[in-house]
Each structure stands twice: as structure tokens, then as C-alpha cells.
Amino acid sequence: MPQYVSVQLDEERLRKRLTMATARLLPEQRDLVVRKTALDVVAETVRALNGVPGHPKRVDTGRYRAGWRMAAIYARLPGAVSIPGVRSHDPGNPSLPSDGIAKETRGRGSFSVTLGNAVEYATDVEDGTSEMAPGHHLKRALRLAERNLPDDTRSGVEKALTDAGLVGVKGRG
Amino acid sequence: MHATAAIANLARRLNLYVASLSLSGAPRIVPIGDSTTQVGPDATLRLSLTDLGGTAAGRYPGVTGAAYYVEQMLTADLFWPDRERGGDSVYARMESADALVDALARLELQVMDYSADPRNPTAVDGAWYRTVNLPSVRDLGTVDGFDRIQITALIGWHMAHADAA
């Protein structure tokens, strides 16, 4: 029998894959891949909230969804742009500037982007309640991002950069 | 439609598998696909699936059609009445969670086709649902009068789609 543990592995697994995938990159390239991956996670989370097969639409006022977009904008992720009307203007549940959270951490040889959603019912939407099944929009997005990350091979990293449209890799020696 | 492409077959298989387990406290099961939203008043286990998409995986043996490796996230939400609601066991929900994790960690179920006769399904040769990670367990604390534990497991299998005529 496995021991009883209380741990969420999704983020840690993605972090490890990301570290492997960027290990041989120049710092500037690594930063781009990290930012692109963060944007992918936000984009897939928002896409699932809007409704995809297997995920019914989970948007009422749009405040929670807007929180993720705000976080991406705060983090200056490539492709994250401020869209007029993206925030909730519902008088009963308006968006707040503090709904989106973004933090960059740069260490010796490391770079991380942390995004968060501070809407008070965020965990209810993600994990469900006693009256609502879990949405797992973020967990789904983390899994898809993990799956899409290349292996730690030169060709894999080059493909990721090319697919992302971030870096031209032709002619690299 | 090939039996591996029917999510209804997966849902039935998982519902029956979980229902066959001996779980401490014998929680009432809200199966995958049940639109019941209210849990309780007694211990309840709510099952749900989250689609994680898939990737192309060549051709399916014995079938004229494309194969995809696909994943679904199975969520097992355990709701236990808290002390104020008369819950009397500190350990029953943990034991129940342990049993679920153990069962899901070694999950390997042959795909069954329930479409023709749900009472007498036919096994699909060479097709299996398998867990692809150690299930994740989170204690979500007390919510709405229930002590809650959430277990998630990734289920993967190869799905076949017949070629267009």
C-alpha cells in the first residue's frame, strides 16, 4: 500500500520537465521557453474555462478567467495583451487589480515565472465543491504543457523554439 | 465507432471497478456521468473525468484506422461528514483514500464494449486502460460540513478511429 500523502505533483513534474528541456539553452533562450510555457498554461486554462469537449463552460461573470489573463499581462508574457472588456464589470463581482498575480525569480542559472489567481473562489472552480464537480482547468493545462515540452535533446529544443516562433534556429553551429 | 473510442465504455468500466472495491465506511458512490450535484448526508465518493486530449500514435493493430494515445484524469472526491455532522471516524476516510490510491495505482483494466448489451459486455482484444502515474492525494480540509480528500489519477489508453469510407 502506498503511504498516505497530501501532495500535488502537477506543478513539480512540469518544473522538472522544463528544467530538462532548457538545460542546454542560452539564458535568453531559456527565458523565452519558460515564458512561452507559462503563457501556454494560462491560454489552455482560459480555453477550458470557455468550454472544450469534456469541459463545460465555467464562466459566469468572467472574473476568475480575467484573473489569469491579468497574471499573464503582469508577467509580460509574449502574446499576452490587454484586451478591452476582458475584466469583469459585473457590479456584484467586479475584477480587482489584485486578482492576477505574477512573480519572476532569477537566480544563478535559473529563471522561473510564477502566476497566480487570487479570486476568492478560484479553488472552488478548480477543485469543485460539495455541490459542483471539479473543473481541473489548471491541472489539465499543466498536463498538456508537460506533454508538449520536448525531451532533453538538441532537436527537441530547436523544434520547441521554432514551433513557438521565438527563435530562428537555422544555421546554428 | 471502435469500442476504445467510446468514453461511455471507459466511464462504465471505471464506475464498476470502483464500485467493486471494499472501502472503509462504505461511502455512497456518485458515478461518472451522474448529474447529482449534492453529496452527503453520509460519506460520499464522487467520481468524475477530465479530458486531457491525446497524441497521434500510428495505426491500431487489427483495426483499419488511426490510433491515438489519449488520457483522462479520473477524480475521486471523498466527502466525509465532519464531527459537527456526526462523523465518528477520524481514520475511515484516510483508510478509504488509501484503498482508492492503491486500487488506482495498479489499475489495469481491459477495455470492454458495453454498447450492444451493457449486461454482457465483450472484451476488446489487446486494449487496456492503465494508470500512468502514482495517483495524487490532497486533503482539502473541511468544506461545507464535510472533511474532503481528493484523489486524481491519469488513465491512459490507445483509442482507435475507423478510416472514413
Structural class of chain A: mainly alpha
This entry's quaternary arrangement is: heterodimer
- Spatial strand sequence of the major β-sheet of chain A: 1-2
Order of helices and strands of chain B: HEEEHEEEE
Overall form of chain A: globular
| Overall morphology of chain B | elongated
Distance between the termini of chain B: 13 Å
**Overall average pLDDT of chain A:** 75
Q: Fraction of residues of chain A in helices?
A: 40-55%
Number of β-strand runs of chain A: 2
First-last Cα distance of chain A: 51 Å
User: How much helix, percentage-wise, in residues of chain B?
Assistant: 10-25%
Individual helix count of chain B: 2
Strand content of chain A: 5-15%
| Most extensive interface, chain pair and sizes | A-B, 27 and 40 residues
**Count of helical regions of chain A:** 6
Largest sheet of chain B: 7 strands, mixed
What does this structure look like?
- The complex is a heterodimer of chains A (173) and B (165).
- Chain A is mainly alpha-helical.
- Chain A has 6 helices and 2 strands.
- Chain A has a two-stranded antiparallel ribbon.
- In chain A, a hairpin with a 2-residue loop joins strand 1 (100-107) and strand 2 (110-117).
- Chain A is globular, with a radius of gyration of 17 Å.
- Chain B is of the alpha+beta class.
- Chain B has 2 helices and 7 strands.
- Chain B has helices spanning 7-19, 92-105, and strands at residues 28-30, 44-59, 65-81, 108-113, 122-131, 136-143, 146-162.
- In chain B, strands 1, 2, 3, 4, 5, 6 and 7 form a 7-stranded mixed sheet that branches.
- In chain B, a hairpin with a 5-residue loop joins strand 2 and strand 3.
- Chain B is elongated and about 60 Å long.
- The interface between A and B is medium-sized, with 27 and 40 residues.
